Fold each of these.
Amino acid sequence: MKPVAVLLFDVDGTLLITRGATTRCIWQAAEMTLGHELPRMQLTSGRLDQQLFNDVLANAKIANAAKYLDHYKSTYLQLLDVELSAKRDQIKVMPGVRALLAKLAPRDDVLVGLLTGNFRESTMSKLNYAGIDAAIFKIGAFAEDSDERPGLVAAAMKQVGEHVSSSQLIIIGDTPRDIAAARQAGTRVLSVATGAYTLEQLKAENPDAAVATLEMTQPLDQLIQLAHQSRHI
């Protein structure tokens, strides 16, 4: 069997940004769900969608967020799809992403997937309106698959099967939470500074490699080579 490296891409800040659409819809959906205005706070990058809802309600001192989650999720997904459809020209695909995905797509020594805190449906909406073909991503771990980001790695591992070890996985993300999840799961991690964190902030968390943008492909190529080699160890 040919050695395989599994590349798991985050979405927001890594593949694309929605220029505020995600945040606007989170607040709007939360307020529609609760039926009143909520006090604003800074939303933390790298949190799962349900965690962000929990954060919003905790900030408003509202207990039992789980009771409202299904209604919130349905409302949020509808609002987001409408806004992204109307403002698709404002969605920005991050530098180097299209070229990198096109380069990876025909390779038989890599498996390209997603590992994101987004709900599955919102992920597909974002990719669709950004003009990124979701078919390139053969596996995916989404917010529905775990209550914590490290659990998403376990969900991805189940999809690739027992013949692939955690050392063959490479998480590609833009936050320290991606790095922490990788460390906990024993995977490699490439940090990219196209989100809310600077290159220096990401490097301080000691990822396996860090780049300013995904236009810089050599570090990822090196991690892929290491992932191939690890299969034989």
Amino acid sequence: MLEEKILEDFKQAMKEKDKVRSSILSFLRAQFKNAAIAEKKDKLDDAEVASVLRKEAKRHEDSIEQFKKGNRQDLVEKETKELEIIKTYLPKSLEDAQIKEIISQVLKEFPDATIKDMGKVMKQVMEKASGKAQGGRVSALVKQALTKSESPQE
């Protein structure tokens, strides 16, 4: 499981006295613990761990942007190093073509889907993508597919 791999890597980073790596892995482990408590579970499954990792990666990306605007190159470098470590644990993201294939499968279940049904379609697509696609990217592709399917009817 992903959480155990991160724990092992954390222990290794501590032995190697790799401060940046051990710091971010320790932080991630705390985030997993918080998420487990919030879910009222003892342990998170890999999908939930990946979700926490994606959220932290997004937070780091946002921080990097803000630090760049504030001319804080030292913090940009720190956040970038941490982001690279987080990304090593993220599952490989799906390509647009793979996401579009999932969308077309879901749209077969909702043949009369319109832009009003975007929430239902998004939910199904995100479940099938099983955490390997970013919500914003999926949303844009679903919106594109739904507007294409509406055009000929109007």
